[in-house]
């Protein structure tokens, strides 16, 4: 290593997502920077931890300077849970998984027919109470399949069965829905810009809909999936009787996100759907940081086929490539061939499993392993001869 090379003046931007189960996005940035500095001590490093709307979205916003606000809301099984949203000025970032996520279910317990998004509605109301007039609603990691019915109920909607009684929580009971009344929805929603941020573009119903594609991930049996698809269809029909946008919304991209909460947001909240990573990059100030960078490092826990469909690393790479910047990645596990990485705008990826093949040890020692991977990256990309 030459002295000149070891004192590289390159400016590096770290914009990685979390390594699920091991490191938050902010922790990933800390370890990557530590590994880089082992090789190039004088390096200029900036970090913008990123997310795509799912788990870790609030943490990424807080790392970018938003204030973390915690409230008590209704969890997916009706219990009280503590959930957080992020606020900066009149812009809030709300992560549905904070209130209605799988993380709130006991280990091995699923409730595909009964889990509710009521707490997500309470979290939105808390953001409105705090003065938010722009809300980014990140969806993903949900325990629910209720089409956002619980969320709308928490915000003032009345969803009634044939006896005029509110339907029970969850997606299954929507099969008994007879009438809907949205007139008492929180009036502040009409004056608030709400962006539905998701990394999936499924419709509400059918073979690519919320129940069929995502129900099994939440414990739904084939019988449950069929019941939920019918129930969500009934829900869409009843809402179409009271608002003209419901029919088109059920077919719209993103309607099936997170158990159909996308549909509820499009119909009841007047939300607009956008790819989660695109929204979050804007909110987190990524474009401004790109203007100060020579090299971008992105990544997530697993770089795989899913990554290519709206996940954070590809969104980062596309934005960086548009500015002519080189992008490399770090990850826990890599299953994409070099050609697929290149097509996504990623020059090379450094996987922790290439250093430690044992998955359990790799997860447990992710931080130190990531520093070793980042040091290797620095040798390859920051110590080039002038």
TrEMBL record:
GO MF terms held by the record: kinase activity
Homology family: Belongs to the glycerate kinase type-1 family.
Coiled-coil positions: none
A Pfam family reported for this protein in Swiss-Prot or TrEMBL: Gly_kinase
Alphabetic keyword roster: Kinase, Transferase
InterPro entries: Glyc_kinase_flavodox-like_fold (IPR018193), Glycerate_kinase (IPR004381), Glycerate_kinase_RE-like (IPR018197), Glycerate_kinase_sf (IPR036129)
Protein name, as recorded: Glycerate kinase
Taxonomic path: Bacteria, Bacillati, Actinomycetota, Actinomycetes, Kitasatosporales
